[in-house]
Amino acid sequence: MNEIAPTALIVVAHHRSDSLTAAVAERAAKRLELNGYRVDLLDLHAEGFDPRNSVADEPDYGDRDKRYTEEVHRHIARVHAADLIVPVFPVWWFGLPALLKGWFDRVWNYGLAYGRRQSPMAGKRMLWLALAGLTEDDPNSELTLTLLETLRRGISEYCDIPDTRTAALFDSEGQQLTGAERDRHYRELFARADAAIDAAMA
What is the CATH number of the domain that holds 160? Predict the structure, then answer.
């Protein structure tokens, strides 16, 4: 009897298809597929996801079975189907891009991702994969690490996903690098992304 392949949901939050964020996400998808995963690549911008909240998608803490908009239910179905969830995103102003923040605000909603005795998120794993333009030795790099710790505890663990890892790809812009040095820099960056994916699969 064949085993069912695990599913990885990769959530991409960038408006450009030729961005480094998109390239890291595509590389992660290929690596997961090579390791037997079925990959659901969710490009929020390409799919036209609306990050703006509305009254229809406000949680009603007196009704955990509230029916939200169809867009929210389509997206949470993809979350529920995943064994491993990997948001891939740039760090802007030491926070999430509005597109990704809105996805969590609307989709990871009361009764859908939290608020039930038997969590629909139990048994899942997560990897937060962040691309930061500043270098790792920048005095403000700790703010990126603080962001990732906040996401791990405030979203993943709050939604009953304790098996969560984070990875920051610093100096993602490779400023002032040229030629072979720049190529080497990005090979090392991709290698760090590969290592994070491998750790998440372990």
Answer: 3.40.50.360
